[in-house]
Amino acid sequence: MTIPNIQPQPKPTTDRVYWLQTLLKIAEPVLVTAAAGQLREKMPVESAPGQQASRQAVTHLEALGRTLAGIAPWLEAEVPADEKARQQRFGELARQAIARAVDTNSPGTYLNWTKNNQPVVDAAFLAHALVRAPNALWARLDTTAQQNLLAALRQTRTIKPFFNNWLLFSGMIETALLKLNSEADEMRLDYAIRQHEQWYKGDGVYGDGPNFHWDYYNSFVIQPMLVDIVQTLLPLRKISKATVDPIMARAKRFAVVQERLIAPDGSFAAFGRSLAYRCGAFQHLAQMALQRSLPDELPAHQVRSALTAVIRRTMDAPGTFDPNGWLTIGLCGHQPSLGENYISTGSLYLCTVAFLPLGLPPTDPFWSGPTVDWTARKIWSGQDVKADHAL
C-alpha cells in the first residue's frame, strides 16, 4: 500500500494539535526508516563512553518497541477527519516496520530478539503496544508477519529477567501472546503479579524488586504494565476482582502523586535513573487519563494542562533533536552525562508514552475542557487547595 506524504503542519492552535505534531515529529524518523528496512543504517547510536558496541546490538528494537508503545492508542483510535491521513500513514509505517523487524528471511532488517538481556525489555514495550492497539498493529498484519511476530515474542523466553521490574517485561509479553493468540506461559504472568504484591511499599508505590528506589520506574514500567496485565486477565477470568481492585486503588493514588510532582513551570524533580526518558516519566498519569481511571479529585482537563507543560518543558528545549530529527540524550536539551551505561538513542523513545491520551477523542473532557492550573500552580500562586492524604 502506498504511504501518502503529509505536508508540514501549521503552528499548533490547541493542545491536541501540539501533542500530535510533537509525537509524530518524534516518531517519524524511527518508523520511516524501520518501515524502509533502514533503521540500522540511518539511526545514530549515541551512548555513554565505551558502550557503543554493546548498545549497537540492542538499540534498534528499543527505538521501535518504545515508539510503538506511545503511538499505539492514537493508531487504534477513531480520530477526527483532520488526523485521518496522518493516522493512515503512520499505521502503515508501523505495520511495515513490525513486519520487517520479525522477518527471519531478511537478515538486514530482522532485529535482535534474544542476544544479551535487553531484548526482553523492548519486546515487552512492543507487546504493550500490541495490547494497546490490537486492531491497528496486529489484526491488519498479514498472516506471515503475525506468525513471525508471535515467534519473535516467544523467543524472548530464553532471557531470564532480573528480580525487579523486569518480571513485568516477561509478564507483558505473555499478556500480549494471551490476548492475540490465546496462548501464554501463565506462570510468568502469575509470578510477576505476585512478586509485585510482595514489593508494595505503601501509599501507591511499589519497590523495584525488594528495595525502594527514588526514581520514576513506578511510571516508566511498574504501574502501567501491572495495570494493563491485570486488566487483560480480568475479563478472561484468569485473575480475581479481589486482586485487581487494590492494584487499581494504588494506581489512582499514584496518579495523584504524579500530578502533584509537576511544578508550576512544567519541570519535575530530576532524581533517579533514566531521566533521559524525558516526559515518559509521566506514563502512568497519561495512561490513567487514557483509561478514564483518574480519581474524582483529579479533573481530566487539569491533567492535560499539567502534562502539556511537562511535554513542552522536556521536548521543546533546544538540542532535544539532532539535525536529522533523532532524539539526543538529555532531559532538557542535549545532556550526554545523563546517559547511563544502558542508555542509547533507541532508549530515548520511551518519551512517547506521555502522549497516550491522544487515543481519546477530541470530545473527551481531557481535550475539551479548558486549560486550568494544576495542583502545584494553584498552591504556589496562593490559591486554596485541599490537603493531600495518604491512601
Automatic annotation (TrEMBL):
Coiled coil: none annotated. It comes from the Bacteria. Pfam families: DUF2264. InterPro entries: DUF2264_N, UCP014753. Residues 15-373 form the DUF2264 domain. PANTHER family: DUF2264 DOMAIN-CONTAINING PROTEIN, LINALOOL DEHYDRATASE_ISOMERASE DOMAIN-CONTAINING PROTEIN. This is DUF2264 domain-containing protein. It comes from Rudanella paleaurantiibacter.
